[in-house]
UniProtKB/TrEMBL annotation:
Its EC number is 1.2.1.16, 1.2.1.20, 1.2.1.79. The keyword Ribonucleoprotein does not apply. Belongs to the aldehyde dehydrogenase family. This is Succinate-semialdehyde dehydrogenase/glutarate-semialdehyde dehydrogenase. One of its GO terms (molecular function) is glutarate-semialdehyde dehydrogenase (NADP+) activity. Residues 3-457 form the Aldehyde dehydrogenase domain.
Length: 461
């Protein structure tokens, strides 16, 4: 894939970039290693001051960078502005909390005495240069939720961003430099995916984090495993959205629309499989379908647009193939199910009912504004359908029954269970999945400690 900005609203190539050559990559690796030797000794106060400054600059740039993101990957511009604001919030949260999250831990006095020590503490120390392989769908947020904790922990970052968001990638490097971070603290590598393996094998790179597809995750995990390097993977998701009879059906249906089409349906944590108890299935389906039909699809630069184009032509083809396969196998189209006329990589918000296990869309992630609707006879069947997926990122459940809440928390195979609301990420709470959705956690104290050397410091009596 060329490194280029291609406007998904009309298919026009606006800017292309040459990939960095081996000499430039080597220069940047040397710079990262040298910078880490000094940056690791900075104080939390020094790092926090710089990160707060980066947040201030991002807020000043909010309008401009939002338009860049929308131009590069098609998200509605009001959602792009919200993404920039969320990133600034996360940077401030880590600037304010990192020292507390990474404070030395003191084991119990009895355990210290039993070990024969006079004093023991656990210290969190940075690892070094961390390679981040990031996707295009949240081109700022995916990077910041890695960069903010990594930099506050004393690591330095090397970003390999998706090839279709090069302007956003370069903006991020510039943002940290303008904030006062030294040149090698955060660097963008304009490279293709084929260059990742060799960089990850380099001894100067100590760990890697990847958000993206299953194949990309396998490739990075395989190399990192061979080189015995720490990784965090956040891969695909096909999150269930379960609606039980005690739910507020009107509200559930309204939130379901947003949960499915946020970011033009291109979100790992978007609800994709809607599993509805038979007692309220018809009422929910009617409201959900009406809500999807009412969405305004159009120019992503317009403030009233709710659904813009998919980010790439290949992504549009992949989504069409999933829908066509399901329809050929007997799925019913309640709305949408087609590409609208005109330029750009648009797909009409769609709902498919009557989906069976044999259909590809039941097993694979639909990365676009297409929902699948299932009828469940009871709670047991709802749990079975929800867990019948290779993914386990997050989940949504609508119920007012506390016994049902306990059951879903116990039995759903996911990294998160959100009740009576839409899955969302927040810097204070851990984020990540199980099964083929990956491993490790981002955000919160769990996220900042992923790329730390957890060191036991023991003093003899």
């Amino acid at each position: 894939m060329p490194i280029a900005t291609v406007n998904p609203a009309n298919g026009e190539t606006l800017k292309t970039y040459e990939a960095m050559d081996e000499q430039e990559i080597e220069r940047r690796l040397q710079l990262a290693e040298a910078t880490f030797r000094t940056y690791r000794t900075t104080t939390f106060d020094e790092r926090a001051r710089l990160l707060h400054r980066a947040a201030d600059l991002l807020e000043e740039d909010q309008q401009d960078i939002a338009r860049v993101m929308t131009t590069e990957m098609g998200k509605p511009v009001q959602q792009a502005r919200a993404e920039a604001a969320k990133c600034a919030k996360a940077m401030r949260w880590y600037a304010d909390h990192a020292e507390e999250l990474l404070a030395d831990e003191e084991p119990s006095a009895s355990d210290v005495k039993d070990s024969g020590a006079s004093h023991v503490r656990v210290r969190y120390r940075p690892l070094g240069p961390v390679l981040a392989v990031m996707p295009w769908n949240f081109p700022l947020w995916q990077v910041i939720r890695f960069a903010a904790p990594a930099l506050m922990a004393g690591n330095v970052g090397l970003l390999k961003h998706a090839s279709n968001v090069p302007q956003t990638a370069l903006y991020l490097e510039d943002l940290f430099h303008r904030a006062g971070f030294t040149e090698g603290t955060f660097q963008t590598l304009l490279i293709g995916s084929g260059a990742v393996d060799e960089i990850l094998r380099d001894e100067r790179v100590k760990a890697a984090t990847l958000t993206g597809s299953e194949p990309a995750g396998r490739a990075v995990a395989s190399t990192a495993g061979e080189m015995i390097k720490k990784t965090v993977l956040e891969l695909g998701g096909s999150d269930p959205f379960v609606v039980m009879p005690s739910a507020d059906i009107d509200r559930a249906a309204k939130v379901a629309v947003t949960a499915r089409v946020q970011n033009n349906g291109q979100s790992c944590i978007a609800a994709k499989r809607f599993i509805v108890h038979t007692d309220v299935y018809d009422a929910f389906a009617e409201r959900f379908t009406a809500g999807m039909k009412a969405l305004k699809v159009g120019d992503p630069m317009a403030d009233d647009t709710e659904v813009g184009p998919l980010a790439s032509e290949q992504g549009l083809r992949d989504l069409e193939e999933l829908v066509d396969d399901a329809v050929r196998s007997g799925a019913q189209v309640l709305c949408g199910g087609e590409r609208p006329d005109g330029p750009g990589w648009y797909y009409t918000p769609s709902i498919l009912a009557g989906v069976t296990r044999e259909m590809r869309i039941h097993r694979e992630e639909a990365f676009g504004p297409v929902a699948t609707l299932y009828r469940a006879a009871d709670l047991d069947e709802a749990v079975l359908i929800a867990n019948d997926s290779p993914f386990g990122l997050s989940s949504n459940v609508w119920t007012r029954d506390e016994a049902e809440v306990d059951r879903f928390v116990r039995d759903l195979e996911a990294g998160g269970v959100f009740f009576n609301g839409m899955t969302a990420s927040h810097p204070a709470f851990p984020f990540g999945g199980v099964k083929r959705s990956g491993y490790g956690r981002e955000l919160s104290g769990h996220g900042i400690r992923e790329f730390c050397n957890i060191t036991t410091v023991w003093h003899g009596a």
